[in-house]
Design brief:
This protein is of the alpha/beta class. The chain is built from 28 helices and 20 strands. The strands form four sheets. It has an eight-stranded mixed β-sheet, sandwiched between helices. It has a seven-stranded mixed β-sheet with strand order 1-2-3-4-5-7-10, sandwiched between helices. The two termini are 45 Å apart. The structure holds 3-hydroxybutanoyl-coenzyme A (3HC) and 1,4-dihydronicotinamide adenine dinucleotide (NAI).
Length: 692
């Protein structure tokens, strides 16, 4: 075996050369890999002994894409296109041998080989769209030529992967190798040589494009079908335009379209934000004082206390991945209602064809109800989700302490209460942690893991891994009212309330937030959650718009009326009644109404969030700014193409954010506008949150 570079080597077995890429962890197409392929190929072509070449990878996967860390700088020669051209134009057959994931530039590399074989576990995709990009290595022109424009649209615009069986069916691979991939690929290469099979170039293929050529409405229909999901994103449309070019233009012209649109996206702020977010997500899993090798507590049985809105959703997360759950309630009726809702939810999913009726039974079968807390004795993890009341939670934790086996994790789903106080109700505060799911808990991706002062490292490590197991994105946060996500939400909601008293209407505020990219505005969100959360009919004195709306029976979507009126399809429309209530309230309070610009609405809603995020960092409640961004993207639908509130602040410049906060502090005399000291310091040093 000869080393080609520190990331690739070459060996020759009876006329078949193997270029092996070894660039852990994912064999990204870093400079050493490109150089290795290029040099290896040159040596093979010059060597008369070599009859065919196998491109294969060591470690856990085939090439999983371009090296994202190299983006933004100039690409060191040889560039990707040169290497891909060399592969495609090689005068000896090149076979890609694929295991793990062939993604992005990895799949594009495989598409430039003359043949592709894989093992049964291999997966294939062009996920560039998730980085705000499009495949820039010819994938937009080659994939449609292999799988057809229809399938290419689906794969490239969603970024979704397909498995080996589907790849074989689509013609993306020639063969699924049984047994060991390496020897199977060598045997395949020998067969190619023996049969004198042609040097097949994907670029020359046209036949799979015909059905799209015969269907002129294809692209516009597709655009309509994804419009809602991709609102605000630039990359999906650019991907579509490239596939249109593949269908309508000669190969080289299509490549030119790809190159132009790729460069536009690469230079734009959306891709920068999405690339940042790719690493932000992965950073969130790293806890400085909890090393990777920290022992974990095996979790096989989970208990949930409370079968209400959250308890039910939380239990579904477990059942979805085959973990048995026991749910505790105090009354049979509440238990039956909770279990009934879980079943109904699963049946709804099955009716949409997303799971089978057997799945419904299997999952419901994993969930057992009980009225006895003693039934939790053997659980490895218990998650409490009863009413948000400190005394009740303390009583439950004290009871759990006497029931549940030692070493088990005792978690609370509280959205704002002090985990340390809850932990102090037990004799094992090191086992207590917050697991803050978001509603609906079976859908929302975020899990805030709240670390108490005494929470043990093994408990933290286990919960971080457990989150992954149940498909959640975990962010570790410290104890403070509202933790990270809700604490940042509070000042935004407070400003939204002030804006409607000064002259903006709820739908005007919401429109600005939705156009910014949020899935819903501040008032739509309140209506969805219910205006009567924490509201008390007996003590309500009409002291806020919320009081007045609740008193008028407008409790949100569930009563078909809140800040908006709702029709039977839950479509909101601005309400003249609400406008009157707001205007009456402002009048009484002697507030002058004025026209408020969209720019002011945006600044007043978003900048206080950034300021709160800076305070959270100052206090050490979040480990890093990017964790705050992960929280807001996965917990509240902040548009990922704006990175998250902290990345957004960096992108507009912290000096601008500080100046704007000071402007409002001066205008309003309200000290909550004063910028956090941390942000002032960073702005003065010309830095951003990402420099911390
Ligand atoms: N470039 C650089 N680093 C990468 C990388 C890439 N393409 N893909 C993964 N990594 C790094 C991660 O940052 C992580 O680093 P860390 O350990 O320091 O945090 C490490 O590799 C492992 O990654 P994951 O934690 O994500 O490992 P998983 O096993 O969970 O997932 C994976 C593996 C499915 C390959 C996943 O990493 C992934 O989806 N990677 C990105 C794939 C992708 O987007 N490819 C397209 C790139 S753009 C492109 O190719 C442009 C071309 O068209 C020109
Ligand atoms: P809920 O009112 O829908 O459910 C609470 C359930 O707990 C009820 O079914 C009740 O019968 C049961 N319960 C009360 N006392 C009990 C006891 N001693 N033993 C067993 N069961 C008992 O409330 P929801 O919305 O599910 O909230 C639960 C917790 O989750 C609260 O702490 C809340 O702050 C938190 N949370 C709520 C979110 C939401 O959007 N609803 C989001 C995130 C957290």
């Amino acid at each position: 075996m000869t080393a080609l570079t520190d990331m690739a080597d070459l060996s020759i077995e009876d006329g078949i050369a193997l270029i092996t890429i070894d660039n852990p962890p994912v064999n990204a197409l870093s400079h050493g890999v490109r150089q290795g392929i290029s040099d290896g190929l040159a040596q093979c072509l010059a060597d008369d002994q070599v009859e065919a070449i196998v491109l294969i990878c060591a470690g856990r996967t085939f090439i999983a894409g371009a090296d994202i860390t190299e983006f933004g700088g100039p690409m060191k020669e040889p560039g990707l296109h040169a290497v891909l051209d060399d592969l495609e134009n090689a005068s000896k057959p090149v076979v890609a041998a694929i295991h793990g994931t062939a993604l992005g530039g990895g799949l594009e590399t495989a598409l430039c080989c003359h043949y592709r074989v894989c093992d049964a576990g291999a997966r294939f995709g062009l996920p560039e769209v998730n980085l705000g990009l499009l495949p820039g290595g010819g994938g937009t022109q080659r994939l449609p030529r292999v799988v057809g424009a229809e399938k290419a649209l689906e794969m490239m615009v969603s970024g979704a992967q397909i498995g080996a069986a589907e790849a074989l069916q689509e013609g993306l691979v020639e063969e699924i190798v049984e047994g060991e991939l390496r020897s199977g690929a060598i045997a395949f290469a020998r067969k190619v040589v023996a049969e004198g099979a042609p040097l097949a170039k994907v670029r020359d293929r046209e036949e799979k494009l015909q059905s799209a050529r015969d269907n002129p409405g294809l692209f516009d229909d597709f655009r309509k079908s994804i419009a809602r999901k991709t609102r605000g994103f630039l990359a999906p449309e650019s991907n579509i335009r490239c596939i249109e070019a593949a269908v309508n233009l000669p190969f080289d012209e299509g490549m030119a379209v790809e190159r132009k649109l790729f460069q536009e996206l690469m230079r734009g702020p959306q891709s920068r934000a999405q690339q940042y977010f790719f690493f932000a997500e992965r950073q969130a899993g790293k806890i400085p004082d909890v090393p990777r090798d920290t022992a974990e507590i095996p979790i096989t049985r989970v208990g949930v206390i409370g079968a209400g809105t959250m308890g039910g959703g939380i239990s579904m997360n477990m059942a979805n991945v085959g973990i048995a759950v026991t749910i505790i309630e105090t009354q049979q009726e509440a238990l039956d209602r909770g279990l009934g809702i879980i079943r109904k939810n699963y049946e709804n999913t099955a009716s949409k064809g997303r799971i089978s009726s057997q799945d419904v039974e299997d999952r419901c079968g994993l969930i057992t109800g009980s009225l006895q807390m003693e039934d939790l004795a053997d659980c490895d993890l218990v998650i409490e989700a009863v009413f948000e009341n400190m005394d009740l939670k303390k009583e439950i934790f004290s009871k759990l302490d006497g029931i549940v086996k030692q070493g088990a994790i005792l978690a609370s789903n509280t959205s704002a209460l002090d985990i340390n106080e809850i932990a102090a109700a037990t004799a094992r505060p090191e086992s207590v942690i917050g697991l803050h799911f978001f509603s609906p808990a079976n859908v929302m991706k975020l899990l805030e893991i709240v670390r108490g002062d005494k929470t043990g490292k093994e408990v933290i490590k286990t919960c971080m891994s457990f989150a992954k197991r149940i498909g959640k994105k975990a962010v570790l946060v410290g104890v403070c009212p509202g933790f990270v996500g809700n604490r940042i939400l509070f000042p935004r909601q407070a400003q939204a309330q002030k804006l409607i008293l000064e002259g903006a209407l709820p739908h005007q505020v919401d429109k600005v937030l939705v156009e910014f990219g949020m899935p819903m505005g501040a008032f739509q969100m309140s209506d969805l959650a219910g205006l009567d959360i924490g509201w008390n009919a007996e003590t309500s004195k009409g002291e806020s718009i919320r009081d007045l709306l609740c008193e008028a029976g407008r409790r949100g979507q569930k009563t078909s009326a809140g800040y908006y009126d709702y029709d039977e399809k839950r479509t909101p429309s601005p309400s003249p009644v609400v406008e009157e209530i707001i205007r009456g309230f402002s009048d009484k309070a002697g507030l002058a109404l004025r026209d408020i610009s969209e720019e002011e609405i945006l600044e007043r809603c978003i900048y206080p969030m950034i300021n709160e995020g800076a305070k959270i960092l100052e206090e050490g409640i979040a480990i890093r700014a990017s964790d705050i961004d992960v929280t807001w993207v996965y917990g509240y639908g902040w548009p990922v193409y704006r990175g998250g509130p902290m990345h957004y602040a960096d992108s507009i410049g912290l000096d601008n954010v500080v100046a704007t906060l000071r402007k409002y502090a001066e205008q309003t005399g309200d000290s909550s506008w004063e910028p956090a000291a941390l942000m002032v310091r960073l702005a003065e040093e010309g830095k951003g949150f990402s420099d911390l």
